[in-house]
Design a protein that fits this description.
With 179 residues, the chain is α+β, with helices and mostly antiparallel strands. The protein is built from seven helices and eight strands; from the N terminus they run E-H-E-E-H-E-H-H-E-H-E-E-H-E-H. The chain is globular, with a radius of gyration of 16 Å.
């Protein structure tokens, strides 16, 4: 069994598209997952599973569509090792940026750095971003609620689905995968 952090795209956002975490937990158990822990009310769940990350994400997405009618909910699935590498590689932490102003936009698939760099973060200052592996690091000094560098921005520019978590949540999900 491998421990995974699963992040759901487009649920429990702004009071819309509700999915109770108790229902998500039951759904994971019904798919054969064990040690299921939800985190916050924003579509985060950590599970142990024999399934591959791709199969786990697809199974959760399909079941959410069947049971709740949300057919466009993609599930980004990450291992503890992947989250650890993501955390260590954050260029904004290396620059000493305030952790409360940092976010990670998780991508539905890996996008080459060469596809991210031409977007150019200079036009969105003071907000900025940097490419990562299956993710984009986002620094928002004025807060994420004011940035143009949101999920929709990266989905349009990169042609992939995306979901964003703040830096504290990323670190907490990593900790939960190590239990």
């Amino acid at each position: 069994m491998t421990r995974f952090a699963c992040m759901l795209r487009a649920v429990n956002v702004g009071g819309q598209r509700k999915l109770k975490m108790t229902e998500l937990q039951k759904m994971c158990v019904s798919l054969g997952c064990t040690d299921v822990e939800t985190y916050l009310q924003s579509g985060n769940v950590v599970v142990s599973s024999k399934l591959s990350p791709g199969k786990l994400g697809a199974s959760l997405s399909e079941r959410i569509g069947m049971e709740f009618g949300y057919r466009d909910v993609e599930v980004m699935v990450w291992t503890a090792a992947e989250l650890s590498a993501l955390i260590r590689a954050n260029p904004f932490m290396a620059r000493g940026c305030e952790p409360a102003k940092l976010h990670v936009t998780f991508l539905g698939k890996d996008v080459p750095v060469s596809a991210v760099q031409p977007i150019g973060s200079g036009g969105y200052l003071p907000d900025e971003f940097a490419p990562g592996t299956k993710a984009v690091y986002v620094h928002c000094p004025a807060g994420y609620g004011r940035t143009k560098l949101n999920n929709g921005f990266f989905e349009r520019k990169l042609g992939v689905s995306a979901t964003t978590r703040n830096w504290q949540t990323v670190n907490n999900l990593y900790e939960l995968t190590n239990r």
